[in-house]
Amino acid sequence: MAPLKNRRALPLSAILLALFSLVCGTAARAQQASPVPPPAAVDPKSTAEFTAAADEVLGQMSEITGLKLVSPVKKTLRSREEIRAYVIHQMNEEKDPGERYAAARSAEAFGLLPKGFDFDNFMIELLTEQIAGLYDPKAHEFYIADWIPLSDQRMVMAHELTHALEDQHFKIEDWVKAARPNDDAELARESVLEGSAMAAMVDFLLQGSGRSLKDLPDIDPAMLVGDMSSTPTLQKAPPFLKDALIFPYLSGMTFTAEVLKPAGWPSLPAIFNKPPASTQQILHPALYRSGKVPAPVKLPAVDKLVGPGWTKLEENLMGEFGWKEILKQYLDESRAKALAAAWDGDRYVVFEQKQSKQLLLVARLDLAGVEQTLHFFGQYSEALEKKHAQRTNLFRRADFFSFETPDGGVFLRCVATECITVEGASRALFDSINKSIGWPAAPEPPIDPAKVPDKTASIVPGNRGVSTAPNGARAVAAAISKNDPAARFLSASSSFSPTILDASQTRWTALEDSDRAGTLVGKHACPPQAGCATYCPGALPPVNFCRSREEAWFVHRNFAG
Ligand SMILES: [Zn+2]
Q1: pLDDT at site 5
Q2: Who surrounds ion ligand 1 at CB < 5 A?
């Protein structure tokens, strides 16, 4: 995913400060070689001490990881300013303004970054926080800041020199880039690099303690995270950026520790020979072992459907990590985690309207099973409503949800184990996308409430005394409306299966959650009969659901639709 690709251009000083008071060389590792400011005059005694310490640590890391030193590693002691200048220089050199813009806007389309987020300046600010060291795979050179005490330098060295050793054996930059253009797979490989360097560093730190990486499950990762407040820039980072920065280190370390079992470091080359295919495998090492790979997901040729005036910004995969982050923006972390774990594959594309700068996001997901798809539909419906504060013309069916926003229409549809979500589109564009992936036509919203067919489920914009319901129900609605002018109406139809309600309550849960602003002031239920089920939506009174066409009626006061 795009922001993560940019992540590789980040100086990770703040992260590692938070983690271990050190910096990592991912930024440099990912970038082109370029002139480096010449070293400032350094105390020869410090240099000699530094060189000796680096040689010693290099030998120890070689012993820990089992990776023999193939050729000498260049090492330079630099001032903080020199290192900062180097990293900023590299960042600017790699900078492709179009790509950076596309990445930030795509993240915005998913709700991962705030609108107009100043990505570049944020990164520069992050840079101005402390930097301790880095490894440059282009120059095969290791830099360390001269301002940190030698004792801390050794820890930085342990991490960075693991990169150096891996580079000599596995050509790490080429190895990571081989995953392109799949951003999710690339992040998975990044996680192996950072995770293994962290794991090796842990073993380095545990030397002589009688413990090693194998004891890692007994070590609380939270203990390693340290005090985030010591890094002000990171503290104010959007949660997604923070997570994206930390992911390769912590999740990568857990992955490495798990996959190295039981043989330990001799198993490391096997990971490079068989790289993880997705962040899902990083999050669930058992799926790496079992070889579960994402289902290939294809998007229709959206560029042919959007018409002139639209530019494609990005097309890629979010992966389980990316979707967890998206869901986390609007749902709580445990729900996001559980929903994202059902990820089986995805693909998205983001377009921008040249003049208006309106965004169009089309994403298609493959989920692990029908039940997981139902859950996703219900909860992502809720997420979309939280994402778009201004909504009109809400239209819900069992597997279809749409509404209008000032930035275009929002659509979510699930069929079998797949879902598509389209934001910033007209209904006509949604229909053509729907058609081009071979799905049957999506349900049509009522054009004229008076002519609505019996099976319509919809929300009637409040207070007009009109419902889309069959006659009997309309009478009820009208009657309540007369007594209570603030009432608005929500109807359900027989397309909502009581079986689904009984099994997971997903759809109705979503309905209730999204309608929380309303208060149930009355209900009209069909008479008890075979097929009825009672559903108790939280603190609201129980509601009967039946298979009859009139089903149940909710009447909400001040309904927020
Ligand atoms: Zn690193």
Answers
A1: 40
A2: 24, 194, 197
* 165 and 246 assigned to the same domain: yes
Task: Identify whether 443 is part of a domain.
Answer: no
The Å distance, Cα 187 to ligand 1 centre, comes to 13
What are the tens digits of pLDDT across the range 192-246? 999 999 999 989 988 888 888 777 655 555 555 555 445 677 778 899 988 888 8
Residues 307 and 278 in one domain: no
- Distance, CA 46 to ligand 1 centroid (Å)? 24
Q: Rounded to the nearest whole angstrom, what is the distance from the C-alpha of residue 193 to the centroid of ligand 1?
A: 7
- Cα 69 to ligand 1 centre (Å): 18
Q: What value does the mean pLDDT take over residues 414-443?
A: 96
Residues 58-72 have a mean pLDDT of 97
Ligand 1 centroid to Cα of residue 171, in Å, is 15
Q: Has residue 540 been placed in a domain?
A: yes
Query: Is residue 491 predicted with pLDDT exceeding 70?
Result: no
Both 134 and 268 in one domain: the answer is: yes
447 assigned to some structural domain: no
Average pLDDT rounded to a whole number, residues 52-56:
93
CATH of the domain at 351: 3.40.1000.70
Query: Is residue 297 included in any domain, yes or no?
Result: no
Q: Which domain holds residue 428?
A: 302-436
Distance 23 CA to ligand 1 centre (A): 7
Ligand 1 centroid – CA 466 distance (Å): 62
User: Rounded to the nearest whole angstrom, what is the distance from the C-alpha of residue 159 to the centroid of ligand 1?
Assistant: 6
Cα–Cα distances in Å, from 92 out to 10, 127, 143, 171, 181? 11, 12, 19, 24, 22
